[in-house]
Amino acid sequence: MLTKGTTVCLVARHGRTALNKAKAFRGKANPPLDDVGIKEAQELAKFLESFDIFSIICSDKQRATQTADIIAKKQKIPVHQTEFLRALDVGDFSGKKRTPETESELQTYLDDPDCQIPGGESLNDFKNRIHPCIVEAVDLFCKLETPSLIVAHSSIIHEVGTMFKNNHKGVLVEPGGAVAIYFNGSKLDVEPIFKPLSISGSHAETIT
C-alpha cells in the first residue's frame, strides 16, 4: 500500500573508476572500481542497511557488479545482473577524455534521439532499454511491498530524472550516490538521498 513518503525503489550509481577520475566517457568500457570507488561502495552499503531491500538488480559491467556485491555482502541479499541496465552506449566516445569538443560532438547525436552514436546506440534505443527496467522495479514493489535496489550508471540516473521530473540532470549524483523513487502523496517522485564519500576524504552524507 502506498502512503506518502513510501520508498518504492532505490537507484544507486556505482563507485568511482579510473575513467571517472580522468573525466573520460565510460559507455561500453568496463573498468573496475578504483580504491576510492571501493570506499564509496562500502559507505553506500552502510547507508543502505537502514532499508529493507529484498534484492539487487545491477548492470553486468564490473564497476556496477563490484558495487552491488559489496552492498549484497553487507545485507546478505541476492544480486541479479542484466545487460539491460548497462550505461548509454556512447560507442567510439568510450574511454575518450571529456572536453568541450567531444561533449559538443556527442551532444549532436543526443539532440537527435533516433540517430545512432557511432559504434554505439541511439538515445531512444537506450530509453527503450531502460524504461521497462524501472517500471518492473516499481511493479515489484506493488506486489511485494518491499523496495528493490538498482545499481547502475550515471546515464540511468539521468533517465530516472527524465522519467519522474522531466529533467535529466534533476537528481544526478556522483559515483557512489543514490536516489529514491518514492510516493509523494499524489504521484511517484524521485530525490537524491545519499552523497558519497568525497575524493578529499570527507564523510559521506545522508541527504535530507
Summarize the structure.
The chain has helices at residues 18-21, 35-48, 62-75, 100-110, 123-144, 154-165, and strands spanning 7-13, 56-59, 79-82, 148-152, 178-183, 188-195, 205-206.
For this structure, the CATH topology is Rossmann fold
Report the biggest beta sheet as strand number plus sense, adding barrel if it closes. 7 strands, mixed
Strand content: 15-25%
Extract low-pLDDT stretches. 199-208
What labels describe this entry?
disordered C terminus, 6 helices, 37% helix, globular, alpha/beta, 208 residues, Rossmann fold
Would you spell out the secondary-structure blueprint of this structure?
Layout: E1 7-13, H1 18-21, H2 35-48, E2 56-59, H3 62-75, E3 79-82, H4 100-110, H5 123-144, E4 148-152, H6 154-165, E5 178-183, E6 188-195, E7 205-206
Parallel strand pairs: 1-4, 2-3, 2-4
Antiparallel strand pairs: 1-5, 5-6, 6-7
Can you offer a commentary on this structure?
The protein has 208 residues and is α/β, with parallel strands linked by helices. The chain has one domain (7-89, 123-206): Phosphoglycerate mutase-like (Rossmann fold, 3-Layer(aba) Sandwich). It contains 6 helices and 7 strands; from the N terminus they run E-H-H-E-H-E-H-H-E-H-E-E-E. The protein has helices spanning 18-21, 35-48, 62-75, 100-110, 123-144, 154-165; strands at residues 7-13, 56-59, 79-82, 148-152, 178-183, 188-195, 205-206. Strands 3-2-4-1-5-6-7 form a 7-stranded mixed sheet. Helix 2 (35-48) packs parallel to helix 3 (62-75) and helix 5 crosses helix 6. The longest helix is centred in the middle third of the chain and has 22 residues, at 123-144. The chain starts with 6 loop residues before the first strand and ends with a strand.
